[in-house]
Design goal:
Elements (H helix, E strand, L loop, with lengths): L6 H12 L2 H9 L1 E5 L4 E3 L7 E7 L2 E6 L5 E7 L4 E2 L1 H6 L6 E4 L3 E7 H10 L2 H21 L5 H10 L9 E6 L6 H13 L4 E4 L1 H8 L9 H14 L2 E5 L6 H9 L2 E7 L13 H4 L4 E9 L8 H6 L4 E9 L9 H11 L9 H10 L3 E5 L7 H12 L6 E4 L2 H12 L2 H15 L2 H6 L12 H11 L11 E7 L4 E5 L4 H8 L9 E2 L6 E4 L8 H6 L5 E5 L18 H9 L11 H12 L1 H9 L3 E4 L14 H22 L3 H4 L11 H14 L5 H7 L9 H4 L41 H4 L8 H11 L1
Parallel strand pairs: 9-11, 9-12, 10-11, 12-13, 13-14, 15-16, 15-21, 16-17, 21-22
Antiparallel strand pairs: 1-8, 2-7, 3-6, 3-8, 4-5, 4-7, 17-18, 17-20, 19-20
Helix pairs in contact: 7-13, 7-14, 15-17, 15-25, 16-17, 16-20, 17-19, 19-20
């Protein structure tokens, strides 16, 4: 192309002649729109005149209620449809959608949509099918009826906002953070899920030239970065140690910013971090705390988070020793080039982080059921032996206790020992007698029970656990469900185990509300794990009470003394009546039976119930027996999944069809993406063609001013260097008013008088 530049016109003419009239009409009517970070594509209450398709970037949907309260509905990533329901139903916008980062969208007007529907009616059927699946899935998760087009669009838009990140920026808190090694570790784990690449300032300069980061080359850089994001599921942007133009570009391109720090250092805020609130106000930011192998339980995580109001979540990462080795950049690249050829450890903390970023994480939900909760320990052992990674843990009642033990220790042997010791102490009669009190609120004061919980879990915060964790409680002050992801661990676990009438409610120190057992509102919170924690697949273990129809008909009244006589008399007929704990457990089960049925029928949840119905709620003395039942049932269950070929989706989740390539192909792609980036960029080659100053199209754009509103720039142009004069060229069909960087450079190519090129020249001029 550099030798014979006029080949561009012949190629363009050939392409245009082979396009159908329908495609050319679509190309003429379709708008490729660039939206700067912080600008809205539409606002709540506006008329619905178009639908948007996400090309790159990230959008956030927010609804404002009548009382002024704002609610986050969800976020959109590449490939999503935005505002389709309101456009089809011709109703007002039900929410405000704004760009979190610099975003490109394709805008389909309602007239264009109607034209497509008239030309090809099958499009309507396909749209109805797509929207129907999404609506039904959202309806099942929310459990609320649909009321009108506005409510319909809100249900369609509801989706987890903390997953499915296409671009991730890595930023170090201090210079001693091994950020380069960590980025390669994360790249290694991401390659086990799908196609990924790592971009650095050095690679950018080597590939595109030393001056690529200058403002005059913004158009070319943005186009090249967009290509990388199109070719890879996840693109990692490695920031420099200083606030360089490349660091600013990384922050502007990121769907999520990972702030990496060494946990062994004291809590501190980096220099670049302090400017994030002005550089990336709406971009999600997460704190990564690196720990060495064998490090003690994390402490004082709350201090790190209290200094960072901009961080929405955090992750504790136990990294391998090689990450902390002090090597030169050249040796680091050489060592990781070999590591990238191996399969990643799916059970490592870095792989857990990779699954959380790509929306392929596996959540474990442990239900309540008293002593039957010992089966949770055996089930966790079976899950790990089956090769299934556990990324997030949530629990209710006894499930909250067992889950907290595992998240704290991350060692199943220690977890089992502590759970067994706690269960044996629960059978000691003297502890129960000593804790009896006058039953105004409950039979027991809770002092002895609190001591047992504190002894097992220690003085630990939920933020300090190795794995992300949550527990549920029932707030009887305002009659609602509470999800706890931070605060004192033992207190909220104790609150989630507080059976009404047996133990007193726990006073929440944050707002003085009274909390009791979470099983009264949701005994198996798989829906919470999916909607609020963002888990892709959920393993739900249920150990609650089952309906027992073989109870004795004792008439209209029941005497405890009569039951006692029947129990002590060896010749009396056996009487089957529920005990107080059994009644409490069954009442809790009745209140959430509808939610449990929805969980069982959902496509994201694997519901498991071990055969533990013969064990009573307070039969803590049978810990080992119940644990073994859970383990053997889990082993058999996952062995069946293995034979059926369905275990792979849990053990090694993939999020895109491209991720199903052979490992060798993935490794080759990763090496090319991380080192050479070999491809032919026609637009880049066109930009190199040298032309005289006077251009055929100079007159077309010399007297025209850019319309800033067309790009979503409200109140004037952007102030950042590189965006003050002209916005980046959107991908797709070039337009005259924003084509200074393209048409003016190819316009001086000599055009022959042949019929083909003449027609093309007239068409381009018009």
């Amino acid at each position: 192309m550099l030798e014979v530049p006029h080949v561009v016109l012949h190629v363009a003419n050939t392409v245009i002649r082979r396009l159908s009239p329908f495609v050319r009409q679509i190309d003429f009517s379709l708008d490729w729109t660039y939206i700067e970070a912080g600008k809205a594509i539409y606002r709540q209450g506006e008329a619905s005149d178009s639908t948007y398709i996400m090309l790159s970037g990230r959008l956030r949907s927010v609804i404002t209620h009548r009382d002024g309260r704002k609610e986050l509905l969800g976020e959109y990533a590449r490939g999503d449809l935005v505002g389709i329901v309101e456009t089809l139903t011709q109703t007002e916008r039900s929410s405000t959608v704004m760009a979190i980062r610099d975003t490109e969208v394709a805008k389909l007007s309602d007239g264009l949509l109607n034209f497509i529907k008239l030309k090809y009616p099958i499009v309507v059927s396909r749209l109805i099918e797509l929207l129907g699946h999404r609506i039904l899935g959202s309806w099942k998760r929310s459990g609320s009826p649909l009321g009108g087009a506005s409510a319909l669009s809100q249900v369609v838009e509801q989706r987890p906002s903390q997953t499915n990140f296409n671009t991730v920026a890595l930023l170090a808190v201090s210079e001693d953070v091994p950020l380069v090694s960590f980025s390669f570790e994360l790249l290694h784990s991401l390659l086990g899920i799908g196609r990924a690449t790592l971009l650095t300032s050095e690679l950018i300069r080597k590939t595109l030239g030393p001056g690529i980061l200058e403002p005059s080359n913004d158009h070319r850089l943005i186009a090249w970065l967009a290509q990388q994001e199109d070719q890879h599921q996840v693109t990692l942007y490695l920031c420099d140690a200083e606030l360089t133009p490349w660091t600013q570009r990384c922050i502007r391109q990121a769907d999520c910013i990972l702030i990496v720090a060494l946990a062994e250092r004291g809590p501190s805020v980096g220099k670049i971090e302090k400017q994030l609130e002005t550089l990336a106000v709406r971009t999600q930011k997460e704190l990564i705390l690196l720990h060495r192998e064998g490090a003690p339980l994390p402490r004082h995580t709350a201090r790190w988070l209290n200094m960072r109001s901009w961080c929405s979540s955090h992750h504790h990462i136990q990294a391998p020793k090689r990450l902390f080795a002090k090597k030169s950049l050249t040796k680091i690249r050489e060592s990781y080039r070999k590591i990238l050829e191996t399969e990643p450890n799916r059970h490592s903390d870095v792989s857990r982080l990779a699954r959380l970023l790509t929306g392929t994480s596996v959540g474990l939900v442990l239900g309540g059921g008293g002593a039957r909760g010992a089966a949770h320990v055996g089930m966790i052992k079976a899950i790990l032996e089956a090769g299934i990674p556990v990324d997030i843990v949530g629990g209710v009642s006894i499930g909250a206790f067992m889950g907290a033990l595992y998240c704290r220790e991350k060692d199943l042997v220690i977890c089992t020992q502590k759970a067994r010791s706690w269960s044996m102490k629960m059978t000691q009669l003297w502890r129960q007698v000593w804790d009896l009190t006058y039953p105004v609120t409950s039979w027991f004061s809770g002092r002895a029970f609190n001591a047992l919980i504190q002894e097992a879990l220690g003085e630990c915060q939920i933020e300090d656990l190795w794995l992300p964790y949550f527990t549920l409680t029932t707030d009887i002050t305002d009659s609602s469900m509470r999800v706890h992801t931070h605060g004192t661990l033992w207190r909220y676990v104790r609150a989630s185990m507080s059976i009404a009438g047996v133990l007193p409610p726990v006073c929440d120190p944050s707002d003085d509300h009274l909390l009791v057992d979470g099983c009264y509102v949701n005994n198996v919170p798989a829906d919470v794990m999916r909607s609020q924690m963002g888990a892709h697949m959920v393993l739900a273990v249920d150990v609650g009470s089952q309906d027992d129809a073989s109870l004795t008909n004792y008439g209209d009244h029941l005497s405890g003394w009569w039951l006692l006589w029947k129990r002590w008399n060896p010749f009396a007929e056996t009487v089957r009546v529920p005990s107080l704990p059994d009644i409490q457990s069954r009442l809790a089960y009745v209140s959430c039976v509808r939610q449990l049925e929805e969980v069982k029928s959902s496509d994201y949840c694997e519901y498991i119930r071990p055969p533990i119905d013969r064990y009573r709620t307070l039969q803590f003395g049978s810990f080992d027996e119940i644990k073994d039942v859970g383990f053997f049932h889990g082993s058999t269950y996952f062995a069946g999944m293995q034979k059926a070929g369905t275990l792979q989706s849990l053990a090694n989740p993939k999020s895109t069809p491209a991720a199903k390539e052979a490992p060798a192909v993935q490794r080759r792609v990763s090496q090319e993406a991380a080192h050479s980036h070999k491809f032919t960029d026609l637009a880049q080659m066109v930009c190199r063609v040298r032309v005289p100053r006077h251009s055929l199209y100079d007159s077309l754009d010399s007297d025209e001013d850019e319309d800033e509103d067309e790009y979503g720039l409200e109140g004037g142009a952007a102030t950042e260097q590189g965006y003050h004069s002209e916005p980046p060229v959107p991908r797709g069909r070039p337009q005259v008013h924003d084509s200074k960087g393209y048409f003016s450079e190819v316009s001086d190519i000599e055009v022959s008088e042949g019929p083909d090129t003449a027609d093309l020249s007239d068409e381009l001029t018009s």
